[in-house]
Amino acid sequence: MAKKSKKNVVAEPEVATEAQEEVTTETAEEVTAEEAVDPITRLKNEIEAAKAESSTNWDLYLRERADLENARKRHQRDKEDALRFANDRLLKEMIPVLDNLERAVEHAGQDNDNNQGLLEGVNMTINQFRKALEDFAVKPINAIGTDFDPNLHQAMGQVESADQAPNTVVSEFQKGYLLHDRLLRPSLVMVAKAPTSDAADAEAEELTSNDE
After folding, report:
1. Is 25 left (phi over 0), alpha (psi -120 to 50) or beta?
2. Helices 88-111 and 116-135 sit at what angle, rounded to 10 degrees?
3. Average pLDDT over residues 170-193
4. In this predicted structure, what is the pLDDT of residue 51?
5. 169 with 191: CB under 8 angstroms?
6. By the 8 A CB rule, do 102 and 120 touch?
7. Are 198 and 164 in contact, with CB atoms under 8 Å apart?
8. What pLDDT, in 10s, does the model give residues 80-112?
9. CA distances from 44 to 12, 32, 37, 49 (A)
10. How far apart are CA 97 and CA 187, in angstroms?
11. Could you tell me the pLDDT band of residue 44, with boundaries at 50, 70 and 90?
């Protein structure tokens, strides 16, 4: 009886081992099946990630190319402006010379007719001077009779005028000039304002209308 009991004890571990082997085999089969699906899924994910990265890189490339093109155009504009306005300082120094010539002609014309020969010579010089400025794209500003523009005019004061609308340039102390449509020198001007009586009447009329 003791020997039979010993055989039964030895046989039990063998049964347990076989059960473990069956479980291990089933687990291995499941892992193998999962591995058979995972590479395809993983490959799809990698392809999608590569597409997304490619799209991002293409967008960055387009942005960099646009920035480079804009920088090239901006550099070209700066270069052209530098060439167009290279004589800015020289022309500013030349314009006062023209002012003095014009003043000399104006004063000489008020004296007598003995200066006609001199005046003709100076006028010819002035015309040549103006032509030289035009060749450098310098244009005078026609200020009198126009609306006051702070971008072109510098107001020296105001004067009452019944003939001119308020804020109209009525006189000019110094002519202004443009260089390639850029202000080279502003016009020094006097600006019209409404006469005091008219302004008072307008204010009284406005107060009356408000009271009504």
Report:
1. alpha
2. 160
3. 92
4. 86
5. yes
6. no
7. no
8. 777 677 778 778 888 888 888 888 787 776 666
9. 49, 19, 11, 9
10. 16
11. confident
Instruction: Write out the DSSP string of 142-208.
Output: --TTSBP-TTTEEEEEEEE-SSS-TTBEEEEEE--EEETTEEEE-EEEEEEE--HHHHHHHHHHHHH
pLDDT tens for each residue of 101-151: 888 787 776 666 666 777 777 888 888 888 888 888 899 999 999 999 999
> Which sign does the torsion angle of CA 131, 133, 135, 141 carry?
negative
Q: How far apart are CA 170 and CA 190, in angstroms?
A: 6
pTM of the model: 0.53
Non-local (6+) Cβ contacts of 45 within 8 A are none
Taking phi over 0 as left and psi of -120 to 50 as alpha, with beta for the rest, 181 belongs to: left
What whole-number distance in Å separates Cα of residue 132 and Cα of residue 85? Answer: 15
Q: How many percent of the chain have pLDDT more than 70?
A: 71
DSSP 101-141: HHHHHHHHHHH-GGGHHHHHHHHHHHHHHHHHHHHTTEEE-
Tokens 């030895």 sit on residue: 10
Other beta carbons less than 10 A from residue 141's beta carbon: 21
